[in-house]
Amino acid sequence: MKKYKYLKSVLMSFFIFTIFFICSEVKVQAMTNTDPQLGSVLKEVQVGEQVKAIDSRYGWWLIAENGKLAWCNAGPTSYWDKNTGNFPILLRINQKMNIHEAQVVYNYKKGQIIQVINGSVTGWWKVKTPDGYYGWVNSTNTSRNSSGKLIASSNVGAYFTADIAPLQQIKVVQPGEQIKAIDSRTGWWMIAENDRLGWISAGPISYWDNNTSTFPILLKANSKLAVNEVGIIYNYSKGEKITVVEGSVAGWWKVKTPNGYYGWINAKPTHYDSNKNLIASENLPVYFSGKEPSNSNEQLSKQQLVLREAYKHLGKPYVTAGKGPDAFDCSGFTSYVYRHAIGIEIGGWTGAQINSGREVSRADLQPGDLVFPHSNHVGIYVGNGQMIHAPQSGDVVKVAPIYKFWRARRIIN
Q1: Residues 83-91, mean pLDDT to the nearest whole number
Q2: Which of 109, 199, 299, 407 is the most interior residue, by most CB within 10 Å?
Q3: CA–CA separation, 292 vs 257, rounded Å?
Q4: Mean pLDDT of all residues in 90-111
Q5: Domain ranges of the chain
Q6: Which residues have CB under 8 Å from 349's CB, separation 6+?
Q7: Helix 330-342 × helix 302-311 angle, to 10°
């Protein structure tokens, strides 16, 4: 009898452990839905090691390591000191793990002029590439020419910035498979797949036929490749007017959003009204083209700068008292966005922010205004009756309709 009870106890423990393990695996798999596309292992970091982050996104840090940039899972890290909001941020590794090199978005040739859009952050320049994308370049591979312009002193790659890095894997294509591209960027094709858009590396790809320049372009995969979904930059509401900047390409419209960004929408859920305006037939996401607004940084309005900063943090988790950059509560999010976008301090909690700026009515709302559904919650108005906000525990930063209106404040005159 004692043997039977012992055996029963062992089997029950094994069963509980197995269920726990399976649940843990499911949880880990779910967390990888917004992983950046990871390159080769750059290094194994150890418990207690200090690393330096220059950018972040969706639970990942982009860290500088021996002249390269690498992705580090934010879960097993903590802040090294009291600086939790201004890059570079020092972090402590709390669990042994691999860090993976980030992907390169553009390759500069020796002597090529580099357009800098941010001062050096711990030895890295944030740059705008010749084809209109943002990236990070190691400053040790740069110098000044006789005119004082920054140039590449050797061939050097620009790494993806965190806000446009390829994210969730939506498909794996097989060797010989045909795929359809509707857009491209240096080293990448944007392909349409089951009403979604994804990035795929251009390296192991060849043309399917003689059409090599007019989109859509048919391509052939020469090896097994991951397709990573393009990020969403805006959501049209049902009935909203859409500004098209390119005719339909393989069932997709290239559009300019109300906030000045370019993106792609699926043409199926659209229709024309009696005035020949293209209208969203249902709530409709806009896939980010990867490019910034058509205006230069200097020409962007303060409202656009605020919204651009806010959109960078889509998908980041809500954490009580979170002040960023990797997690936020509602007032921590709005405070962080205003400070980093235009250098304005609006206070770190809702009670302070309700006294910032000036009062505006719901009818007078403009993008960038602070919106208060009630006294304990705040978001940023993005237009079309929607706000971007950090809603509640268990949720993430997202764009959503204003579900209730209490008050609003205009910070930008």
Answers
A1: 79
A2: 199
A3: 12
A4: 85
A5: 41-101, 106-164, 169-229, 232-288, 301-410
A6: 331
A7: 130
CATH architecture of 41-101: Roll (2.30)
CA distance 231 to 288: 6
pLDDT in tens, 334-380: 999 999 888 899 998 999 999 999 999 988 888 899 999 999 999 99
Q: Which residue in 243, 248, 236 sits closest to 260, CA to CA?
A: 243
**Domain 106-164 - what CATH class?**
mainly beta
- Record: fold of 232-288: SH3 type barrels. (2.30.30)
How far apart are the C-alpha atoms of 197 and 266, rounded to whole Å?
9
Pick the closest to residue 319 from 371, 260, 390, 270 (CA basis): 390
Domain 301-410 CATH superfamily: endopeptidase domain like (from Nostoc punctiforme) (3.90.1720.10)
Closest alpha carbon to 190 in 254, 121, 256: 254
Please indicate whether the domains covering 106-164 and 301-410 agree at the CATH topology level: no
Q: What does the block give as tokens for 404?
A: 């209730």
What is the reported pLDDT for 30? 25
Tokens in use for 42? 């750059």
User: Per residue in 234-252, pLDDT tens?
Assistant: 789 999 999 887 666 778 8
Query: Residue length, the chain?
Result: 413
**CA distance linking residue 253 with residue 276, whole number of Å:** 15
Is 169-229 CATH 3.50.50.60? Answer: no
Pinpoint the alpha helices (H) of 251-407. Answer: 302-311, 330-342, 350-353
